[in-house]
Every structure is written in structure tokens, then in C-alpha cells.
Amino acid sequence: MIVGRYRKQPSEEFPVSITFAAELTGAETVASCVVTVRNANTGADTSAAILDGAHAVVSPLVTQAIKGGVHEELHILTMLATTSLGHMWEGEIEITVRED
Fold first, then answer.
1. Adjacency order of strands within the sheet including 56-58
2. Do residues 77 and 68 touch, judged by C-beta distance below 8 A?
3. d(CA 19, CA 30)
4. How far apart are CA 56 and CA 58, in angstroms?
5. Phi, psi of 68 (to 5 degrees)
């Protein structure tokens, strides 16, 4: 499910985050996360071009810096979080690259 939308220029680098607070119960925390990016039009994995370094988990928040991209590309960043109870939750961010 798309939980956020960002518009960026190819030269911009900044962090994006997803909170999984609504999915957690009691003392449950986000234990780990896998972050990937794909081109929304072609389905190609664009993680190497868009992800800038490692993500950070500070439960319930997962943060990932993004970079690059080419004018008029649309990417979907997916965060697949695993909780301390073994539950898995997915959130997605739509990233539109546009040179203004």
C-alpha cells in the first residue's frame, strides 16, 4: 500500500520514512526491515540507483535516504518490516523524479 509520495529532482538527496506504529501491538517493535526500490513502469530493480546507504530502524519508524533518478521516472520504494513477534508489514513510498 502506498503510504507516502515524494517528488524529487535528480540531484536531491534526502531521507524518507514510514512509521509502522498503527500495526504494532503492546510492546511489539520493528525488529528488522528490507528496503527495495523498483521502477513503477518497467518493474526493474532500481535499488542501487535510488537508495543512499543503509536504512535505519528506530521502532516504529524506518528511515532510508534516497538519491538520484532520471527526469520523469516513477519509482516505488518498499519497506518490508518484521516485528519482534514475527509479523511482517509492508509500506510503500511513491517517488517521482522531475527536473524543474
1. 14-19, 61-66, 56-58
2. no
3. 10
4. 6
5. 60, -150
CB 10 within 8 A of CB 98: no
Return the CATH fold of 2-97: Immunoglobulin-like (2.60.40)
Residues 6+ apart with CB under 8 A from 55: 33, 35, 62, 63, 64, 79
Classify the phi-psi angles of 55: left when phi > 0, otherwise alpha if psi is within -120 to 50, otherwise beta: beta
Residue 23 to residue 32: CA distance in whole angstroms: 14
Contact 73, 53 (CB under 8 A): no
Give domain limits for the chain. 2-97
Whole-structure pTM value = 0.96
Q: Read off the C-alpha cell for 32.
A: 528488522
Three cell numbers at 25?
501491538
**24-60 per-position pLDDT tens digit:** 999 999 999 999 999 999 999 999 999 999 999 999 9
